[in-house]
Amino acid sequence: MQLGAARFVAGETLDECVVVLRRLNEQGLYANTTLLGEGVLEPGETESVVAAYRTIVDRIADEQLRANVALKLTHLGLSIDEELAQRNVAELVEHAAARGNFVRIDMEESRHVDATLRIYRRLRESGHENVGTVLQSYLFRTENDLAALLPLAPNLRLVKGAYLEPPEIAYPRKRDVDAAYVRLLETSLRADGFTAVATHDETLIEHTISFAEERAIPKERFQFQMLYGVRTRLQLDLVQRGFDVLVATPYGPEWYRYLMRRLAERPANVLFLLRNLVRG
Ligand SMILES: Cc1cc2nc3c(=O)[nH]c(=O)nc-3n(C[C@H](O)[C@H](O)[C@H](O)COP(=O)(O)OP(=O)(O)OC[C@H]3O[C@@H](n4cnc5c(N)ncnc54)[C@H](O)[C@@H]3O)c2cc1C
């Protein structure tokens, strides 16, 4: 946290995170929270991750926060065994349903996309409605993945993609990633289901608004999502304009990899952290 991670991470404990979630709610923002962690290789460790998420879901319900959870399948054992991750996430989705909550399954590196989409599909086909996942516009495959999911009326968060992927499978140029995002966005908004437009890119945000207006797509069918600590003013401006905005608000002691991804996205963030170090 001394590094300045507190700009992007809502503390190391659930108690610290709850304070932030409540403040966001008071500002008219929805939130989701994530216990940071990924790439677990010990089956026993996934049991404590499941227990921690059960506690989070209970706490959100008890404190009546407008927040859901977003989690990574490799935190629940996907790198060990797909069935283990499936069982763990199914348990959490059931628990969330019992407490009136929703689980978003994040998308990780490209080697996990097939398994993540299989697990999402199995959850939906076994009757779970309170679960959604994520598609990344930088991957060539994603337009096909979206088409395959649409019959489920999916709840999808669209992102550009945060990992370093090879040019054989992902667009290397930003403008191609952005153009693919527009195609996914329009397809998803036109179809049944719910679209979470997760970007800080104002051009894409304004495009979403005008596209939805032109086609009379109700505001309840989509939501903007941004990261805690990024474009805070824009988040509040959109709330003022009457749109739903959710702030992804992670916490936990394992914040290092998350922070590194945020720095890689925007070199100016490195300067921000260096200034903190010098001041500290
Ligand atoms: C709610 C949410 C959930 C996400 N979930 C996933 C996921 O499951 N899987 C995945 O691969 N990726 C995920 N991401 C990350 C995403 O893929 C991008 O890496 C990230 O959002 C940056 O892309 P952008 O769409 O904001 O556009 P960009 O074109 O990268 O940025 C547009 C503008 O936003 C601002 N900005 C962007 N990033 C930062 C930053 N880190 N710090 C400060 N300013 C910034 C800058 O002003 C920039 O000019 C998620 C992003 C969000 C918002």
Topology at a glance:
Blueprint lengths: L13 H13 L3 E6 L7 H20 L4 E5 L10 H17 L4 E3 L7 H13 L5 E6 L5 H8 L5 E5 L14 H17 L3 E5 L3 H13 L7 E6 L4 H9 L4 E7 L4 H10 L2 H12 L1
Parallel strand pairs: 1-2, 1-8, 2-3, 3-4, 4-5, 5-6, 6-7, 7-8
Helix pairs in contact: 2-3, 6-7
In words, what does this structure look like?
This protein is an alpha/beta fold and 280 residues long. 47% of the residues lie in helices and 15% in strands. The protein is built from 10 helices and 8 strands. It has helices spanning 14-26, 43-62, 82-98, 113-125, 142-149, 174-190, 202-214, 232-240, 256-265, 268-279, and strands at 30-35, 67-71, 103-105, 131-136, 155-159, 194-198, 222-227, 245-251. It has an 8-stranded parallel barrel with strand order 1-2-3-4-5-6-7-8, surrounded by 7 helices. Helix 7 (202-214) links the parallel strand 6 and strand 7 (222-227). Helix 2 (43-62) packs parallel to helix 3. The longest helix is centred in the first third of the chain and has 20 residues, at 43-62. The protein is globular, with a radius of gyration of 18 Å. The N and C termini lie close together (12 Å). The mean pLDDT is 95.
